[in-house]
What does this fold into?
Amino acid sequence: MLATLEEQVMPNSQEDGYWQAVLNRDAAHDGRFVFAVSSTGIYCRPSCPSRRPRRTNVTFYKAPDDAEKAGYRGCLRCRPRTANSNEEAAKIRSICRYIEQHLDEPLTLASLGSVFHQSPFHLQRTFKAAVGVTPKQYADSCRMNRVKTNLRAGQSVTHALYDAGFGSSSRLYERATSRLGMTPDKYRRGAIAATIRYTITDSPLGKMLLAATDKGVCSIAFSGSDEVLELGLKREFPFAQRRREDANLSLWTRSILSQIQGRAGSALPLDIQATAFQKKVWDSLTTIPAGQTRSYEEVAQQIGAPAATRAVARACASNPVAVAIPCHRVVRKDGALGGYRWGPERKQALLQLEKQAAKP
Ligand SMILES: [Zn+2]
It folds into this structure.
């Protein structure tokens, strides 16, 4: 026990310098050591304004913890614990700033340790104690914040992720998804604060909503009622000004209605955000002729990712513009319909209408 205590006390050669710092009330030494006074049972930081004790009553300790382990209480006047944690906090803050400025580089504890002259283990421990997360987790959350800012500023998902040091692989996309609580493209869409014009018309598949930004069609959806469609639009674009404009959108609506009947319709300008992977899948869907179907496996093969069947199905299910991107033409390998975002009965009806129209 005695041996342990002695280790925590300063070696004699340093003590003279520390005593001088105490006599000078040198604030530059605050946080480097504390001095404990045996006659009062109290320990202080070097700059404490109270009267100087006798040298013979003073013991130096490296940290408040050490003084307290030896039975001393912190001085209420100079609050030595605060002094120490101030320096610690400054160090942690500078590590945070460093991480923020190096987000696009791979971050290792070893490299942080060498920059801040600490052992990786010690750095990780003190950082986590102060910030609540590890340096790596902190870097990730900074990247996520940057992604959010980029998405709100209107950057594409791929660009926003890449720009924030995430790269653009699907693994990172999924990690971003779990951190954002929704897919990045949804987040981006939700953040659109522009005006969105929409119209609702009758169609062979029930009520159809078509919505557009200044740049193009951003949503095509089906439902049984206007209310459900309007609520869906509000959920998808919570920050947008939504304005119903039936007449102005009738040209585009007629084109989609014509495509539902299996007739050729002009391709509409689309304003949708996609990951690189979604874009590949969606592009591939537009090459499937009306009246024909492909399996999820075939689409996966066509885009050169034969193992990504499930990801293809997910990309189909996240299609924001029904019919305009014909995700209904992808079915299961065994001939079963597979899922459809707007209900399997609509998928079946669409395929039937297209087949009829394709007959000579
Ligand atoms: Zn004091």
In short: The first helix runs from residue 2 to 8. The chain has four domains: 2-80, 102-191, 192-260, 276-358. Strands lie at 34-37, 42-44, 58-61, 73-74, 195-203, 206-212, 217-223, 241-244, 294-295, 330-331. Residues 44, 48, 50, 75, 77-78 surround zinc ion (CB under 6 Å).
